[in-house]
Specification:
about 250 residues, alpha/beta, Spore Coat Polysaccharide Biosynthesis Protein SpsA, Chain A, three-stranded mixed β-sheet, 8 helices
Length: about 250
């Protein structure tokens, strides 16, 4: 319901110790230094975990060490045959901490300032909503460049086990309701964070809300970027890049 997010985003003064940033990398090393520099400028003591999704590049660990970021080299889970395992891994790592909020970002996310408003302890996710429809089916998700998950929501989703549902893998691919998503899984062999989270949240009845301080798109235009800059958004994805490059993970 429009406006309900304003009633749920009532928490201010959140300390760094309550925040757990997580990002997945795969051949994204060129983006990391700028991402970490912005993150540490605004959240100097927050917990940050970088998961290398099958990328053995030692430069990842070197960059993480420079910015006091924890680095883990993990199995490649972003393949379509892994379904929602990569998304499950994010939440499991978060729940191993004592943090109150998980903030999922990408290597090319631009953290421009601290968030002023944080969610209450509710079973809901907050970010930039997006939807896809095909025939009579509609699926809503949050764009994966930046979204916030309260701890109680992560606990609920992980306990359900729905991100490990075999139907998120081929041949069912229940999250890929549109031909372009099926093409992503079939031809590129990739899963997604956005759409498996969206599907699982729909099945569990977990609402997805717009966060007014986050502007995240798959491929943002200059006009969208400029509007976000004027509105002083806390997080913008993707970072404006005149070279046209985008993170791949």
């Amino acid at each position: 319901m429009p406006g309900i997010e304003n009633k749920l985003l009532q928490i201010s003064g959140v300390s760094d110790s309550e925040i757990f940033f997580v990002l997945q990398v795969y051949q994204d090393t060129p983006f990391l230094a700028r991402c970490f520099k912005d993150l540490r400028k605004h959240y100097p003591q927050a917990q940050v975990l970088v998961i290398s999704d099958g990328d053995p590049d030692p430069a990842i660990a070197d960059l993480c060490a420079r910015f006091s970021v924890k680095c883990e080299y993990g199995e490649r889970l972003f393949g379509a045959d892994k379904g929602g395992q990569a998304s499950q891994r994010f939440m499991e790592k978060f729940l191993q901490s004592q943090a109150r909020y998980m903030v999922k970002i990408d290597p090319d996310t631009h953290l421009r300032r601290r968030f002023k408003r944080w969610p209450m302890d509710v079973i809901a996710l907050f970010g930039t909503t997006q939807l896809v429809h095909w025939n009579a089916e509609v699926l809503v998700s949050l764009q994966g460049g930046c979204f916030i998950v309260p701890r109680v929501a992560a606990e609920f989703i992980v306990k359900s086990g729905r991100l490990l549902d075999p139907k998120l893998k081929p041949p069912a691919l229940v999250w890929a309701i549109h031909p372009t998503l099926r093409q992503r899984a079939g031809e590129r062999g990739l899963t997604s964070h956005d759409w498996p989270y969206g599907y699982v949240c729909r099945e569990l009845g977990v609402p997805l809300f717009r966060h007014p301080e986050i502007s995240s798109w798959w491929k943002g235009s200059f006009r969208q970027w400029l509007a976000s800059w004027i509105k002083n958004k806390g997080a913008v994805h993707p970072r404006l890049n005149f070279m046209g490059k985008k993170a791949t993970s």
